[in-house]
Amino acid sequence: MRLAIILILTLALATVLALFPGVADQEMRIEAFGWLLETKQGAFIVVGLLALCAIWLIQRILAALLSGPGQLWRVLRTGGRKRRELALRENIRKLIDMRQELTARNLKKAQGVIPDWSLSLLRILATPAAEQEPPSADRDALQTALAARVATDPQAKPKPDTATRKAHLDAWLKASPGAPLAIARLPDVAEEEADWAVLVRFLEDAWKKGDRAAASIKPRLAHAYLKLASQQQRENSEDAIASLRKAHRLSSDSTEALLALGNAYIAKNDERAARSLWFTHLGKHDDAVIAQALFGLLKHDAMRAYRKLETEDGLNPACLWLRVQLAHAAELTGLAHDHMASLLEKHPSTLAWSTLGDWHAEDNNWQEACRCYRQALELDNSKMMG
């Protein structure tokens, strides 16, 4: 910028002197410290400008010598800062377009335009996640954080192995304690390691701090509690039911959570709690899976359970199927077939047709059983096609 100003001033003065040659030929006298200088004004101005240019050049060379021989070459070579900026911009554009890789050679002209430490960051950004260097204690904190961010990117393909990503996250949090993005990515690693207790803790902390919306955390937290409960059941831990209850509270409509909690009650010889849980759910939801599980509990006293449902109005298809199955289990054959005919007419389903097929198979009526199973398959295929 300063060089450009000097050049502009020089051009302006040269123009003035060319337009007014009389001014340039006028003599001038300078007396200072006993010295007397007599010269022409034009020559004095030109010499003064040349002296300023020489001083500026010497200053740049001395600064470059003090900075090292590489800096001296960059000062003396052709092409200024603007040219190097354009070269850097072009190289970055090619990098973005994947026309070339980011190497020391094509970043050479960037030196002196951007800080040297930023060149290493650019190289980290250009390195695929799976090829990032493992974290080390002597690495710069900024480089550690950026390398970890690239290595743990959920969209990266291929990804580094789980242990490597965990090491990157640990190094990231050590270099930048409390980094929100690093904390947000910890659950992914915990889930891959099947460390459900740690995953639950991470998700609960994120929920309490408000780092993420509850709607995005609740389904994942419910799934984590289910997995944790399964692990606790294998270890015969008393905490399994508590984990299942939390999963059910987080996702009350989840069939998986309901089944797991009900089966846990049954395992603890608390069938009454399981019946109450499943009946309450069926009263609100048309859930064939829960209806089948509940039938397994009620079929031992089918008549009593049927009488309870017989007088109920406005039953959903799952409850209607349960009533049909209870009538059949109670050996109320006529009522069972009447109920089944009504169910197939109003709410045909794969479950209803296959159940009727099972009844015919029990009676060795194989032709009718095959017809019912075929109807079930056709209905199932039509749903898949639709």
Which key phrases capture this entry?
mainly alpha, single chain, elongated, 386 residues, 3% strand
Output the radius of gyration.
Answer: 41 Å
* Overall mean confidence score, pLDDT: 83
Low-confidence stretches: none
- The span between the termini is 70 Å
Helical residues, percent? over 70%
Task: Furnish the topology, listing elements before pairings.
Blueprint lengths: L1 H18 L1 H5 L1 E6 L2 E6 H27 L1 H8 L4 H16 L19 H11 L14 H11 L10 H14 L4 H13 L3 H14 L4 H21 L5 H11 L4 H13 L3 H14 L3 H11 L3 H9 L6 H13 L3 H14 L3 H13 L3 H20 L1
Antiparallel strand pairs: 1-2
Helix pairs in contact: 1-3, 3-4, 6-7, 7-8, 8-9, 9-10, 10-11, 11-12, 12-13, 13-14, 14-15, 15-17, 16-17, 17-18, 19-20
Outline of the structure:
The protein has 386 residues and is mostly helical. Helices cover 72% and strands 3% of the residues.
